[in-house]
Amino acid sequence: MNPNVSVESVILPDGEKYKNMDTLMKVFDKAIESRLDRRCTFVALGGGVIGDMCGYAAASFLRGVNFIQIPTTVMVQVDSSVGGKTGINHRLGKNLIGAFYQPQCVLIDTDTLNTLPDRELASGLAEVIKYGLIRDAEFFQWQEKNIKSLMARDPHALAYAIKRSCENKAEVVSLDEKESGLRATLNLGHTFGHVMAVAMSYHLGWIDESIVKRVDNILQQAKLPTAPPETMTIEMFKSVMAVDKKVADGLLRLILLKGPLGNCVFTGDYDRNVLDETLYSFCKS
To answer: Which positions fall inside the 3-dehydroquinate synthase C-terminal domain (predicted)?
Structure first.
């Protein structure tokens, strides 16, 4: 270890409920107590909550210091570690406070996935599948052939899936860093789940039924839910959608599939009745 480099650490609680201003202050407290200056580097070692908060702290401390991501879950390795979105939640909604702040580098070690709970593995694979659906049909075909290897945590399959996902994400971010249009397509499924977005696309007549079946099949093999929890009501969906970051001028814009596999649109121009019908078909009340 370089004797000229001092290392200070802050161990933060993990989980969405801790992704708030109180927890963020612990990072600032440590940085200020340690008299860190603008030449310091914040390193995020952990999952998505840690990366988002550490990144936002780096963007804000002394108006911006160096930042390195070392993500330890599939979700962060394929998605949030690349692209510079950082932030915290507000009690009224997720990720409503934050900044676009790019890391100097992202270091991914797939060995960190050996201890990842199955639920977290599946959660990350949902994002991998997303890339195939919105922009990379060839990658989706590869996933269909290799989903069993991914579920078995085959290191070669995981490495390829992570690499290809990062390439897709980086390409989109380089074209639209601040999410004015194209980058928003990466949010497929973030408003009401992959299955519901695909179902709505089909009900609008925008995609072929074969795509719906293929998506349903791969999600089941990945042990991902194909319906919302029974406790979710239509009103609950609508209240959450009202504060979605994709709302503009009071209009909820959605990412929906359109055309052959690997194509999507980010639009507010859709039949509202079809949105209601989709919600009704998935919710009991």
So the answer is: 124-202
**Is there a domain that residue 275 lies in?**
yes
Question: What is the distance between the terminal CA atoms of the chain, rounded to a whole angstrom?
Answer: 59
Tell me how many domains the chain contains. Answer: 2
Between CA 8 and CA 44 the distance in angstroms is 12
In a domain, 170, yes or no: yes
Q: What is the pLDDT of residues 108-122, one digit of tens each?
A: 999 999 999 999 999
In a domain, 5, yes or no: no
Residue 264 backbone phi and psi in degrees, to 5: -150, 170
pLDDT in tens, 28-54: 999 999 999 999 999 999 999 999 999
Domain of residue 44, CATH code: 3.40.50.1970
Considering the entire predicted model, what is its pTM?
A: 0.89
With contact defined as beta carbons under 8 Å apart, do 48 and 118 qualify? no
> What is the H or E stretch that residue 45 is in?
strand 41-46
